[in-house]
Amino acid sequence: MSVISLTKGQKIDLTKGNPNLTKIVVGLGWDTNKYSGGQAFDLDAAAFLLRTGGRASGIQDFVFYNNLQGGNGSVVHTGDNLTGEGDGDDEQIKVDLKAVPADIEKVAITITIHEADIRNQNFGQVSNAFVRIIDETTGREVLRYDLGEDFSVETAIVVCELYRHQGEWKFAAVGSGFSGGLRALANNFGLQVS
């Protein structure tokens, strides 16, 4: 089977046609362009566990490098990559779809630039960003979404969403950028971060 490649705005069934797809790895990768700022780039993947109305209920619903698990252990961040060097996934988030608590309607996967304001960095300096879904059991890549070069001043991106629909899980290629970094992103999902 070939990998399904999605474009921005597309939605696809994850579990309806793949009943054995229960444990997935969300792999995220990127390259940073050379620029004269002299600061290292540190991009951070995160997951927001969202309830009715697209809101998180508290910091426990924010899975990132300082809080590696959420949803009773159903969503697990595998750890922070400080450089983004090398090929393949730069960061991964594992999701056990069957174990996600019933009141979680959506898992939003995001990438932010650490200290973007201080370092004068934005997603205009990032290229080849992608997300892919891997079947953790078989290691097979199920789908891939390449974000393209649509960003300039943004410092945070909602990459994709995993969401429930009529008892099945679907994937939406979102690709929407935010200025204001992690704070703006968290506020969007109902959380206050300092």
Descriptive notes:
With 194 residues, the protein is mainly beta. The chain has 2 helices and 13 strands, in the order E-E-E-E-E-E-E-E-E-H-E-E-E-E-H. The protein has helices at residues 116-119, 181-188; strands at residues 4-6, 11-13, 23-32, 43-50, 62-63, 69-70, 75-77, 91-96, 106-113, 126-135, 141-146, 156-165, 168-178. The protein has a 7-stranded mixed beta sheet, with no helix packed on it. The longest helix is centred in the last third of the chain and has 8 residues, at 181-188. The chain is globular and about 50 Å long. The model has no long low-confidence stretch (mean pLDDT 90).
- The total count of strands amounts to 13
Largest sheet: 7 strands, mixed
| Model regions low in confidence, pLDDT < 50 over at least 5 residues | none
**Could you say which structural class the secondary elements and strand pairing correspond to?**
mainly beta
Radius of gyration, whole Å = 16 Å
Query: Roughly what fraction of the amino acids lie in strands?
Result: 35-45%
Series of secondary-structure elements, N-terminal to C-terminal? EEEEEEEEEHEEEEH
Number of helices: 2
Helix content: under 10%
What distance lies between the first and last C-alpha atoms, to the nearest angstrom? 45 Å
Strand order of the largest sheet: 1-11-10-3-8-7-6
How does the overall form come out from the CA principal axes?
Answer: globular
Q: How would you state the average pLDDT, rounded?
A: 90
Topology of helices and strands:
Elements: E1 4-6, E2 11-13, E3 23-32, E4 43-50, E5 62-63, E6 69-70, E7 75-77, E8 91-96, E9 106-113, H1 116-119, E10 126-135, E11 141-146, E12 156-165, E13 168-178, H2 181-188
Parallel strand pairs: 1-11
Antiparallel strand pairs: 2-13, 3-8, 3-10, 4-5, 4-9, 6-7, 7-8, 9-12, 10-11, 12-13
